[in-house]
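Reposting from the mailing list since nobody answered there.

I have sequence plus structure tokens for a pair of proteins and want to know whether others read the tokens the same way I do. The first protein:
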Amino acid sequence: MYPNLKKGLVVGLVAGLVAAALIFGLCVWASTWPAFSEVSVTWSFRPWWRLSNWLATLIAFVSVGLVFGFLAAFRPDVKSKR
């Protein structure tokens, strides 16, 4: 049984993009929180274009995309073979 690379790539890209959008949205949302002290968590996300926000998004994209893509590529077809 050979892996279906096209299906794995498409599913991996879609799942990775969804995860990246969620993580980046969370980073942007967290950057808008008011800072109550000098060591508030919100300072780690400000400004929203900070490199660490993009790096967290990239890590989420790659990790989720690889897992879902691998699982989709090696999933057997469920069509009946008549």
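The second protein, same order (residues first, tokens after):
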Amino acid sequence: MSTMTEDEKQARIAEFKKIPQKVQMAALFAFALGIVTFLRVIARAYAMNLPIGKGVFYGFLLSFWFFVAGGSLYSRSRWGFVGLLALTIFPILGLFTLSVHLLRLALEGTMTVSWPETIHCVVALAQFVTTCVLFRYLVARQVRDYVWKPAA
């Protein structure tokens, strides 16, 4: 087991500090999206009367992939970038639908009829907003250039 010397630690810290701000924000929002996705999967299981244990398992699985893909941005991983983009894009239509459903519940005044459904829709709205913010950071020129252009 090798340990890093103090100079190696300082070099890694200096290298980390050189990572552009938007790349760091994209990774941060990827981590946040992993947490929100985990919560939404559990809320969905609860709202649909499905086993909570299964929801926790799938939530952890999805969170793991968001953490891995978000962390891979730091190492300029193109596969991680594409994977994160795919994880971001695929559920967007369903999240939008749940957000509109929440709006409908609010307009009709039926939010309190089914609390599990309302909670699921609220968490889906949070996931939709977080997804949009992450997508915005992923398509930013600074992030694309950092991942796709070779290091200087």
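Reply #1 (J.P.):
I read it the same way you do. The mean pLDDT is 92.
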